[in-house]
Write a structure and sequence with these properties.
236 residues, alpha/beta, Nucleotidyltransferase, domain 5, 2 domains, five-stranded mixed beta sheet, 9 helices, globular, Integrase_cat-core, IS6 family transposase
Length: 236
């Protein structure tokens, strides 16, 4: 995507495109819901067009937001939830800190040591995460194996502790609910790639809703709108 002109050659104004993308990623709306809402505004936008906008701009929104995320804490809660792709369940790995701020996310077709290790590597490499002091996980046997491998490779701090205690993960299990709420109107995804692109948008919008953007507080709707507009060089 062209960094300077991400909306070049688009039939609709950039502000309308971003509005549809932002609303779809933030609220429990279907593409047909947004088509109807745009029609109320006098705009004839087909739901398939909105789908293409989300596929194109959700990953770009996530990429542009990353440098502006606040640093999270060193206490991690790691867990997986399920997402349906082509009528099959796949695994969305997610992590939050002790305050509920999102650390990282990763979509995988498997729930094994390799996937757990890849997810933890991504969380460790994220620019907004601190080195973990403790990582809380459930009883999934893949986590101790992945943790041991990363520890042996020197990629996890020596003093970091892995704790397998399900009740400590209540915070992230509650945080999964927003994913379930957003995916329900669409009744699942038709491909792994489209699922990943959409989930990137869901996750970054949820992070902004939590106030994880620099200069923002939780529930700061005006700040969220302004940040997204500024990231795409538009007037809010």
């Amino acid at each position: 995507m062209n960094q300077q002109h991400p909306f070049k050659w688009r039939h609709f104004e950039a502000s309308i495109i971003l509005l549809c993308v932002r609303w779809y990623l933030r609220y429990s709306l279907s593409y047909r819901d947004l088509e109807e809402m745009m029609r109320e505004r006098g705009l004839d936008v087909d739901h398939t067009t909105i789908y293409r906008w989300v596929q194109r701009y959700a990953p770009e929104l996530e990429r542009r937001c990353r440098p502006y995320l606040k640093t999270t804490s060193d206490s991690w809660r790691v867990d997986e939830t399920y997402v349906k792709v082509k009528k099959e369940w796949v695994y969305l790995y997610r992590a939050v800190d002790a305050h509920g701020n999102t650390l990282e996310f990763f979509l995988s077709s498997t729930r094994d040591t390799k996937a757990a290790k890849q997810f933890l590597l991504g969380a460790l490499a994220a620019s907004h995460t601190m080195e973990p002091r403790v990582i809380n996980v459930d009883k999934n046997a893949a986590y101790p194996k992945a943790f041991a491998e990363l520890h042996a490779e020197g990629l996890i701090p020596k003093g970091c502790e892995l704790r397998q205690c399900k009740y400590l993960n209540n915070r992230i299990e509650q945080d999964h609910h927003f994913i379930k709420r957003l995916t329900k109107p669409g009744m699942g995804f038709f491909s792994f790639e489209s699922a990943w692109r959409t989930l990137q948008g869901y996750e970054i919008m949820n992070m902004l809703r939590k106030g994880q953007g620099q200069g923002m507080e939780r529930g700061d709707v005006a700040g969220l709108v302004t940040l997204v507009a500024n990231l795409f060089e538009l007037a809010a």
